[in-house]
Amino acid sequence: MERHEYDVVVIGAGGAGLRAAIEARQQGKRTAIVCKSLFGKAHTVMAEGGAAAAMGNVNPSDNWMVHFRDTMRGGKFLNNWRMAELHAKEAPDRVWELEAWGALFDRTKDGKISQRNFGGHEYPRLAHVGDRTGLELIRTLQQRVVALQQEDEKLHGDPEAYIKVFAECTITRLLKDGDAISGAFGYWRETGDFIVFDAPAVVLATGGIGKSYVVTSNSWEYTGDGHALALLAGAKLINMEFIQFHPTGMVWPPSVRGILVTESVRGDGGVLRNSEGRRFMFDYIPDVFKDKYATTEEEGDRWYNDQANNRRPPELLPRDEVARAINAEVKAGRGSPQGGVFLDVSTRLPAAEITKRLPSMHHQFKELADVDITKEPMQVGPTCHYIMGGVEVDADTGAASVPGLFAAGEVSGGMHGSNRLGGNSLSDLLVFGRRAGAGAAAYVDGLAKRPTVTGVEEAKDEALAPLERSGGENPYEVHHELQRTMNDLVGIIRKSEEISEALQVVEKLKERAKNAASSGSRIYNPGWHLALDLRNMLLVSECVAKAALLREESRGGHTRDDFPGMSAEWRRKLLVCSAKPDGTSITVEERVQPSMRGDLIGLFERSELEKYLTEEELAEYDAAVKES
Amino acid sequence: MGYKAKFRIWRGEGGEGRLEDFTVEVNEGEVVLDVIHRLQATQAPDLAVRWNCKAGKCGSCSMEINGKPRLGCMTRMSTFEESETITVTPLRTFPVIKDLVTDVSFNYQKAREIPSFTPPADVKPGEYRMQQVDVERSQEFRKCIECFMCQNVCHVIRDHEENKPNFAGPRYLMRIAELDMHPYDVAERKESAQEEHGLGYCNITKCCTEVCPEHIKITDNALIPMKERVVDRKYDPLVWLGSKIFKRQR
């Protein structure tokens, strides 16, 4: 069996994975990047709007404290505050560093990086390149990896001496030596041959879980691999009940349902209307945001040109609010003919401006839906977009509870609390990708000896099982039923009976998945690959449903029809998932979240905190304020 | 709404294969990739195809549809007659791994041969100042999603395996142009474009531009200007004179 020795193995080659790998290599570690697709194709390319970083290029009032406050508000104060702090402080440096690696962001008049408005951000904050920022980010990081390889070629005569990409290679198990990570096991998609990585540190950067849902903006890769690998290796997942449904996905034609329509459309002036032509978002401004959003169309429209004297339009509320509002309008019978609502930029900006600012949206609608967005409105509806929950990690190093295991980006949990702000994902993966890479490098430095790889035979048997069965379940059918179940029963609006029903279905699907059979050879066999991915999707779905059933409140990306209010008691609690190594007995426990550091909580007004915190926490706040 | 379409899809591995016929359901609004996915789910579970984003942003699902390089996810079924047989084959310029999946490592090899962005040593991150008008030229080339269809269609290598070692292909010649036009890049790009990366092989037939799903004007905006820059350098009398004097002094 093919075997490789590395210091750090990074699983996933999106923004977080590449940034982690670059850091580990820059710290002198022999680093492998293992990814399911070709190098440069990861889901990060689909990010459109931009990377949030308080550089203050467009509005000099912006700084890390404002960004921190916006992030905590967006996450409804459930965020890991240390992560939100590090993120707000370090994002500008991470963006500037990309520029030094060749990224070409759009510019301000004075030649700096331009920044655009986005939902939940008080000032224009998103560094961007038209509406293809994710592509710029991934290409820049990809080219940085190539630059490091060119350096290594000069120094060592081998471009892959210190950093190598294993593309189209899927990891199915993390390997351990006692309690600690010792490597990873996987297969080459191309040949079906197995591969073992012998490595003391593994960084998970596998992204999200969207493929457990039918309507999603996520690609096939988003099968929750990292979430499941961590769980099976003994790590904990937090906040799994919080899933972001992006308010604006395409609704037609059916085959592209769910594909993302960037929030920049609204940031640049697009408005949402129902079938009666009403800008309905004015009817959905929640109490906690009442004083921050315009109450008339006139004020909202003035804001685009004069932000100092007007409040922003409610189309730019955080994503969870907008998604719920669209959902409610459609349910009330005021939806568009194709089952969404209207998103119109055609009457708001000149055609030339639209094609310049939103080129890929223009292209996407024209090619896929025969809609010219410079002439007519788009029809949009919510789509499963992002999971806030993930591997519980140490904020500073990205370390999970299992020694040697690290996680960064979407697969990690905590940073975004119950709801992520748009633009905070690209900056998250840069900030914490770098930190996880550095964390893994430091961990390796501190080891007295390399751990030993164990468990290879078991991993091999597990991977081969679907090919050895004949006449079993069709993995495509099992997958389809899982997607329907999660979409219908643990979707944007949830209730107890439905979640319980979903859990029963998942139980049955787990049995069927164990019996999944794949015909054909081991060479590039998508049926086999899907059969193996099913384990991960089912594990993750069970975590989502179990946590969703327990949390009896509505907050951010978790809305309970039977518990519509936000609860200050629940805000303090995180739900923590764990499982046995064979993936059975998933348990969910409550854990109290540590109180925010005094200097950070001091950044908020008491009147705002009263909307979120318990009396006990407010007393702590008063004491802290008194002391300082 | 729905109808049964006739497909002929190239299937095979290990250097052997044949076109296989399928009849498959097609629904309103679908693209070729949807139909291939339906075949996987219902008739051919091990049919190999690359794909990711399904929105024309990642450049994974390049294939040849009725002989033309296309993204499967952006080719709508409504562009064909219902009675038409649609033939889907893998990219011709690269070796087939299985079915519609080809070995595109040639491109990654070429990417590594182009020297990376080289800023002046004294500019620190955060200090870059560039005007929008100055970054726009390179930004056009950075729209590239690396679908490799321009590489696939370029006649310099499509039917001439022997040219591959000496020719970077449109995608990577455009990368050189992108760097040469970057306001802060200080590396020498012109001579090497010609001498090492085969810019001279290109005889501007614009096949690459025609096939680009991002509508990048590869030939007009990248390759021709790059050729002009090379010529300026080669035949600039001042440069020529300077090089003679310099040589004589040594």
Automatic annotation (TrEMBL), chain A:
The active site is at R319. It holds the Pfam family Succ_DH_flav_C. Gene3D superfamilies: FAD/NAD(P)-binding domain, Fumarate reductase/succinate dehydrogenase flavoprotein-like, C-terminal domain, Succinate dehydrogenase/fumarate reductase flavoprotein, catalytic domain. Residues 492-519 form a coiled coil. Its cofactor is FAD. InterPro entries: FAD-dep_OxRdtase_2_FAD-bd (IPR003953), FAD/NAD-bd_sf (IPR036188), Fum_R/Succ_DH_flav-like_C_sf (IPR037099), Fum_Rdtase/Succ_DH_flav-like_C (IPR015939), SdhA/FrdA/AprA (IPR030664), Succ_DH/fumarate_Rdtase_cat_sf (IPR027477). Residues 479-588 form the Fumarate reductase/succinate dehydrogenase flavoprotein-like C-terminal domain. The keyword Oxidoreductase applies. One of its GO terms (molecular function) is steroid dehydrogenase activity, acting on the CH-CH group of donors. Residues 7-426 form the FAD-dependent oxidoreductase 2 FAD-binding domain. Keywords: Coiled coil, FAD, Flavoprotein, Oxidoreductase. NCBIfam families: PRK07803.1 (NF005866). This is Fumarate reductase/succinate dehydrogenase flavoprotein subunit. It comes from Microbispora catharanthi. The lineage of its organism: Bacteria, Bacillati, Actinomycetota, Actinomycetes, Streptosporangiales.
TrEMBL record, chain B:
One of its GO terms (molecular function) is oxidoreductase activity. The keyword Hydrolase does not apply. Residues 5-92 form the 2Fe-2S ferredoxin-type domain. Its cofactor is [2Fe-2S] cluster; [3Fe-4S] cluster; [4Fe-4S] cluster. InterPro entries: 2Fe-2S_ferredoxin-like_sf, 2Fe-2S_ferredoxin-type, 2Fe2S_fd_BS, 4Fe4S_Fe-S-bd, Beta-grasp_dom_sf, Helical_ferredxn, SDH/FRD_Iron-Sulfur, Succ_DH/fum_Rdtase_Fe-S. The keyword Iron-sulfur applies. One of its GO terms (cellular component) is plasma membrane. Belongs to the succinate dehydrogenase/fumarate reductase iron-sulfur protein family. This is Succinate dehydrogenase/fumarate reductase iron-sulfur subunit.
